[in-house]
Predict the structure.
Amino acid sequence: MTIDFIINQFTEIIGNFPVAAFLVACASVGGLLFVLMALNAMVAVYVERKVSAFMMDRLGPMGQGPGLHAGKWGILQTFADAIKLLIKEDTIPKSADQILFKVAPFIIFIGAIIGLSALPFSSSIQAVDLNVGVFYIIAAGSIGVIGIVMAGWASNNKWSLYGAMRSAAQIISYEIPAGLSIIVPIMMSGTMNLQNLIEYQSGSIFGIFPNWIMFQNPFAFLAFFIFFISAVAETNRTPFDIPEAESELVAGWMTEYSGFRWAVFFLSEYANMFVVSGLAVAGFMGGWLSPIPGFLNSPVLGLFWFFGKVSFLIFVMMWFRWTFPRLRVDQLMYVCWKVFIPIAMLNIFGVGIWKLIFG
Amino acid sequence: MADIVFWFVAFITVFSAGMVVTSKSLLYSAYSLLFTFLGVTGLYIFLWADFLAVVQVVVYIGGILVLIIFGIMLTNKITSVNISHSSMQKGVGAVVAIGFIASLGYMAISSPWLQAANTEPAETTASIGRLLLMDYLLPFEVASLLLLGALIGATTLSRKDEDG
């Protein structure tokens, strides 16, 4: 079910109104993606609260019953949070750059949602099926950087500016190992189309193991971990959250934001987590294919497998967040430039040799 | 439908390019450049060059534009917000601009444009790769050597310690 399919359906039912069909298709797909984004953030925030509570033995979010603890299992807390964010006063500092301050959340939001539009949720459900899908999602990530730098500068606050600078340096650095590792699946499958990439991973190894790219050779296995860790760094999450390091920079580039504009940043952060996990799942973990070869593979169940794998990776990101301390700036750059990039380059070389020998 | 989208994209490209030139604030110019680059990406898509369009976003928006903004922010004191640029030598500038437009316009009108069929090519990325690594291998390798040289040069120039 791509956007073209909706345009065709519309033309069949209503008649030939190309402009109307285009607008309806874009609005409906965009609306669905936005709903996905909002639901993803709501569920992820709730899960993050629970995961942190269990990992750090915090009593608050583990309690139940009315009063101090919000509803059964703390479910009401999420709704209270959402309502609070929507009705909270939205302040803009007097000395802030009024135009850029307001534009920045839109740009970050656009950077997050256009990445979602290329993800293959199932063999038949995908907003746009692009020939260069893998590369497109990498590119979508780089638009958000502009928004972050814009937000940091427009706030006219030293913490914001430092946060934005760190964020830009971090994201453009970690794009390199992420990009170099995602080349490995592209080399192995010979395609950048996400659906073809996933179809390439169907079948099994020795009849038992799933034929996922990460299990096909040792270089791809290593590439998956480099890609995933770089992806965590690109989403600015702990242990790579130096751009918003609360003990040094208050809240980094979002210090001056409040209310709904801040909620947009929040939504975009969780959407970015979803996008990078989705790309990792499609590129290395077989996308919508079942983890047990030939078992329960159907377009509808594909949706379940895809969301299941993505949820697992998002859970791993939360696991990182609550178990690792934050890196220093120099450690961050050391890991990227002196560890990941050389290994990623060796991976490309190794996969090339592997392809030559084993075909 | 495609016409409407094309004119929309073309308008954004030209309008934001105008903003880049006329804006008084250097930073506003840099941010207007974002929309110019996005517009050019759209134009590439209209030419069926999907790979080139994505490269445009990765290289120009994700790399060059971020570096430009970075440069503007780092060269000024963090507290001084007054980053502006104004026009100088307007007469000479106008002559150069008009001459440039005239020569470009002459080229555009006089050159015999190739008319390609308006159909989606079967594979863009694969054919680009084949051309780069088979027919144009030498220019490609020379360009990469040049870039490597520039990279080493930049690192050497920006080193602070004398003995290094």
Notes: Residues 124-159 of chain B form one domain.
